[in-house]
Design brief:
Length: 779
């Protein structure tokens, strides 16, 4: 793999050498020789040597070089100042992704929709640029054939001379993950490439929304942001110093401190490559909203939605059906539109590997080819093969090749007593970190690092907390039989920095906690995994480190004290534990609310020094337990205003607190706290602080075992008074000081009772943590 600096040198040199017309300024053979020479360290052809020197001069500019005046910039880099050949930059991808993925109610259709979008983003669009996947030998030839067909499609739909595919090379791609692509291209092809991205999504999915935009920039703008023509008229540092308090200027550059060095940092953080991507993001939102853009006055490939009232609709009730498939071809009678049948046949490929199209699809007479679809479970299996410790941990004595993909939530519920958990995770501080990225090569490194950390954090969490599970009580017509082994999870998507999973309820919180912890550790290079290479530096500088972890953690364990988070990025996670029969679209909505709550909590804790991950969760044992949004439910049903304010819940939690919550539930279980007394204490919480305290103490004294462990892992860990001289405790309450200096009493008891049946405690949990600790020690 070419390093990011060399890749950017090739990309910029290629665009400049090509020029601003469809036909290149130099023969294609010369451009290819230039590319090979830059990649392999050879001699650059004389015809393009000056161009390459200019690009290398741009990249040699020091990271801390900030010209205070434009005159200084012109004097220091006169050749770059005079270089006016435009360079194209294109940004695009799918929009309204969740609307497309979750419009169908069944898991196979959701899996197929997600896999199809991933295929376009990770395979098709990079194939425009001759960037083909590098799979194992048995798939390499098939991928090469498919990617060549994609380029033939591109040239056929966007005719030019020379062909557009000849103008695109792999090094032009800055990133292509998370559903979006950002790439350079020769200036003349900007609109064609943007149109091709939109058309590819529509032609493959029929109904998914997409958007792509592009613009051209001068070479100097790649390093110093948007410049006017002539450059001398650009708003620069001296004008900014005079106008930084203006509301419009402040909105654009951000609100700086009053010190002069902070003013410079605010200005140059904006006047960088970041300003170019911001412009494209604005154009993207404008086009997405339907506004006209110069040279692209209309949306050229809008999805078409049928509205004929007299035709039978598919299962999403949005489009006319073209086929009805009867059992035994599928488990149930299924009515498909052309859009939904593509989702199902892609799901079948993701489920069964690389077999031929199923007979029921061939019987429809449709000629659409789904292509190679490599599902997330396939990638997880490859991860296990590359990492022997995780392979042993996950498989134990099972044969990995005999483990099948879960086909439905019914199958997943069979290993979770009828309950499943939805996990939705998203990275924190992404926007703040991106604003400080000043060069395209750093963008490239950042994108690759975040995707790598996100993907491998998920694989690590699944391997450490799950095992292949044996199905029981399965109907024969389902395609499985009793005793079959399945992977007990479903990966809906792993985007650039977000994750959607469905896992057994019993391991949901442990998986969420591991994802959050491993995401940070992978970015900090503290985890030894094969083929994982982090390029950037995500360590919090010493001056920014939080000082006292106890100021933001409500839980404290002297045996395992909290350590400050040292990573600039972290994960917030929403977890919904619910009956498997809950409609997926409703579960998705609630999980999104939990994620927003966790991110809001992380943002508030950051103000007092906490930079780590947060988790919010909810247990729903009935489908209709919440009729409003979660925040309103908690405020109205679980918050009581008496002599003191009582909060009958404690979520969201930090990752350290979540570990403490799991440990406290373990103490309850080992103490064999009677179920009836657990529920009775929960019902008494509403009656006030003292009533709950008295009843808890009464029931605890009657326990036959586990009193000391319960005292250590629950009472002293969560319920100690804020006054250090007070040796008592408030169990089951915790006191919190509000900003107005009033005291709020909250409790984790309700959540412990809700989770009691969904936490597996024992040697398995302990060995999982020991395995992770050993792996980090081996680094």
């Amino acid at each position: 793999m070419i390093d990011s600096d060399k890749s950017m040198t090739i990309a910029l040199s290629w665009c400049l050498a090509w020029g601003d017309e469809y036909a290149p300024r130099f023969d294609l053979s010369i451009l290819q020789q230039m590319r090979d020479a830059l990649r392999d360290g050879g001699e650059v052809p004389e015809e393009v040597r000056d161009i390459v020197k200019q690009v290398q001069q741009l990249q040699a500019i020091g990271e801390n070089y900030f010209p205070s005046t434009l005159e200084q910039l012109q004097q220091d880099y006169p050749e770059l100042w005079e270089q006016k050949t435009p360079i194209g930059l294109v940004y695009g991808g799918a929009t309204k992704i969740k609307q497309y993925v979750f419009e169908a109610p069944k898991l196979p259709d959701i899996r197929g929709a997600s896999s199809l979008l991933d295929r376009i983003n990770l395979i098709d669009l990079p194939a425009f640029f001759h960037k083909d996947p590098e799979p194992e030998a048995e798939l390499r030839n098939r991928y090469n054939i498919e990617c060549q067909k994609i380029r033939e499609w591109l040239d056929k739909n966007f005719a030019s001379e020379p062909k557009i595919s000849k103008a695109l090379i792999p090094e032009l791609i800055i990133y292509s993950t998370g559903g979006n692509i950002l790439a350079f291209c020769p200036a003349a092809f900007v609109n064609d490439l943007a149109n091709a991205i939109e058309k590819r999504y529509t032609e493959r999915t029929l109904t998914a929304n997409s958007c792509a935009v592009g613009d051209t920039f001068r070479l100097l703008e790649i390093r110093f942001g948007l410049l006017k023509d002539p450059i001398e008229s650009t708003f620069w540092l001296e004008q900014y110093r005079q106008a930084y308090t203006n509301p419009l200027v402040e909105a654009y550059f951000g609100k700086p401190e009053t010190q002069s060095d902070s003013l410079e940092n605010a200005f140059f953080n904006r006047k960088s490559f970041n300003e170019l991507t911001t412009k494209l993001a604005i154009l993207f939102n404008q086009r997405r909203s339907g506004n006209e853009i110069q040279n692209r006055t209309t949306r050229r490939y809008p999805p078409m939605f049928e509205t004929h009232p007299y035709l039978q609709r598919d299962e999403s009730e949005k489009r006319s059906i073209i086929a009805i498939v009867q059992p035994p071809a599928l488990l149930n009678e299924s009515a498909f539109s052309e859009a939904s049948i593509r989702k199902r046949v892609v799901s079948d490929r993701a489920k069964t590997g690389f077999a031929e199209s199923p007979q029921w699809y061939r019987d429809t007479g449709l000629e659409w080819d789904r292509g190679i679809i490599e599902g997330w479970v396939d990638k997880f299996v490859k991860f296990l093969h590359r990492n022997s410790q995780q392979h042993q941990r996950y498989c134990s004595n099972s044969n990995l090749e005999a483990v099948k993909l879960c086909q439905s939530l019914t199958h997943l519920s069979k290993v979770g007593n009828g309950f499943v958990a939805y996990i939705y995770a998203d990275a924190n501080n992404m926007g703040g970190f991106i604003q400080k990225i000043r060069t395209p090569q750093k963008y490239k490194e950042f994108s690759e690092d975040v995707f790598t950390a996100t993907e491998h954090a998920v694989y690590q969490a699944l391997a450490e907390n799950l095992h292949p599970r044996e199905l029981k009580g399965i109907k024969e017509e389902s395609g499985f039989k009793d005793g079959d082994l399945i992977h007990p999870f479903e990966i809906i998507t792993i985007g650039g920095d977000d994750i959607i999973l469905i896992v057994p309820a019993s391991q949901a919180l442990a998986i969420a906690k591991t994802i959050g912890e491993q995401f940070e550790k992978i970015l900090l290079k503290q985890v030894a995994l094969n083929e994982v290479k982090i390029q950037g530096d995500y360590q919090i500088k010493s001056a920014e480190k939080p000082i006292n972890p106890n100021s933001y953690h409500r839980y404290s364990d002297p045996k395992e004290p909290a350590t400050p988070s040292n990573c600039q990025l972290s994960m917030s996670i929403g977890v919904l534990i619910t009956d498997y029969k809950m409609p997926i679209y409703y579960a998705k909505n609630l999980t999104e609310q939990l994620l927003k709550s966790a991110k809001k909590y992380a943002k508030s804790l950051k103000k007092i020094g906490y930079c780590g991950g947060t988790v919010d969760f909810l247990v729903l044992k009935g489908v209709t337990m919440i009729s409003s949004n979660i925040e309103e439910f908690r405020q109205e049903a679980l918050t009581k205003e008496r002599m003191q304010k009582l909060k009958l819940y404690a979520a969201p939690y930090t990752l350290y607190e979540l570990g403490g919550l799991i440990k406290s539930i373990g103490a309850l279980k080992r103490a064999e706290f009677p179920r009836s007394q657990l529920y009775q204490i929960r019902s008494l919480l509403e009656r006030g602080k003292h009533t709950a305290i008295l009843n808890y103490r009464y029931f605890r004294t009657r326990l036959q075992q586990g009193k000391n462990e319960l005292k250590a892992d629950f009472e002293e860990a969560w319920c100690k008074p804020k006054d250090e001289k007070n040796n008592g405790n408030l169990a089951p309450w915790t006191s919190l000081k509000e900003p107005d200096k009033s005291t709020t009493y909250e409790t984790i008891w309700r959540e412990m009772v809700d989770l009691y049946d969904f936490i597996d405690i024992g040697e398995e949990s302990d060995s999982s943590q020991k395995q992770l600790t050993k792996q980090e020690a081996d680094l």
